[in-house]
Every structure is written in structure tokens, then in C-alpha cells.
Amino acid sequence: MTFLIGFPMRLVDIGANLGHESFRHDFDALLRRAQNHGVDRMIVTGASREGSEHALALAHAHPGMLWATAGVHPHHAIDYDDATDARLRELAQDPSVCAVGETGLDYHRNYSPRDVQLAAFERQLRIAAELGKPLFLHQRDAHGDFVALLGRWRDKVPGAVVHCFTDSREALHDYLALDCHIGITGWICDERRGTHLRELVREIPANRLMIETDAPYLLPRTVRPLPSHRRNEPMYLKHICEEIARDRGESVEAVAAHSTATAVAFFGLA
Prior knowledge:
Elements: E1 11-16, H1 27-36, E2 39-44, H2 49-61, E3 66-70, H3 82-92, E4 97-106, H4 114-131, E5 135-140, H5 143-153, E6 160-162, H6 169-177, E7 181-184, H7 195-200, E8 209-211, H8 237-248, H9 252-267
Parallel strand pairs: 1-2, 2-3, 3-4, 4-5, 5-6, 6-7, 7-8
């Protein structure tokens, strides 16, 4: 394994949409760049039935480096049917699937009706509870309904991480009270809408904090030089780790060590 000089840490990207079409032309090079920047384990997000199948295929092709989640994002809840439920249940039993999700609620865009989102979310909560898998969660503009439903299932699942947290202090502490983990992305680097996270990230216990890119989305706006293609990828997790360390008043080494240990324990990574 090779690392950049001055950054000999091992990092885990807990959320990368590596099945995205923008990665098809340089996927192997992408993995090499990630390794060279200290990111040696990545979790490929499944956000639909087909996307979850693709995520698992990538994990099978790169054992020990890639794992997958299996779930249906609330944007696609309208497509959630009995066949989808059965397929997700089958996928989630694979050892390379380390969490159920991405699932949750999104009232920001409402691509699926809210009652349909709630029903799909609860069916996936049931899968996680019955299979003993942690949850990889999404919430946007739906905090009240999200916390209410999650709260009814939280003691039935082994763990839950609120991925790509961008919400308020009140929401953060509601999640921590439910014994949830928190995923922080490059949103924290966005001076237009993420500056509040620089304060809130200090309030996340070290053993609840995990880091992620959400690639190819959310390229950290503080990366220099900013790549012309504006595509995010796992190699930039190092940059997010450095920004979080500065905001928490901790060393980069400490944030890297704690977030990696937390991710390994939470997802059961080898």
C-alpha cells in the first residue's frame, strides 16, 4: 500500500456512489488514487434495486477494499414493491453488504409521495432488524417523521448512521440521543451552506463520527486546485478529514484514527 508523504493514515470512505456512470471510464485508476491518498476501504452506496445489485458486484470484484449497502433511496420509493423487498432482503444477506440503505425520507424534492416514502422506509427498517444489519440513512427536510419512525425501530437494529449530515444542532442531538452515528461529507467545506457544520462537528463524540465523500457529488469547495471536471471521488476524503480536524481542534492523525476505527467497528469491516 502506498500513501502520500505526510499522510500515512488509513481512511474509510463510508459513502461513495461508485456505481455512478461518471466512474466507468477510469474506475481502476480511481481506486489507485484513493489508495495513494490513504483511503484503502470504501463502501459503495446502493440507492435502488439495480444500484444495490451493481454495488454488490463491485464489492465482489474488489474484496477487502470495497463493501456495499443495499437499499432504496426515498427518491425511488415509488418503485418499491414486494419484488424489490425480496431482492433487497436477499442482497442484504451477502457478507459483502455491510448495511441496509440508503434509506430514509426526503421531503425536499418529494420525488416520491410522502406516504410512499414512509412505507418504503419502514419495510427497510424491518429488513435491517430481521437480518441484524446496521442502517445507512438519508434525511432531508423530514426530521420529525424521520425521528419518529426511526425511534420505533432503533432498539431492534444494531446500529444506524445518518449519512451526509447537514441539519441543525437540534437534529444532531436528536440523532445522538437515538445512539446514531453521524457521517460528515465535503458539505462542511461549502461556505454558502455548510459553515454551521464547522461548529456542530465539535459536538459529535469521536466514537460516533465517520467521514465520507458521497462521490461523485459534493466535491469539497476548498480543494485546491479545484479540478475542472468538479467530480468528487474518494481521494478527496483526506481533504475532508483535514478540514474536520481543524474544526474540532484535533490532529489529523487523531480524526483519521478515530473515524476509521469507528467505521470498521460499525460496519464490521475486515
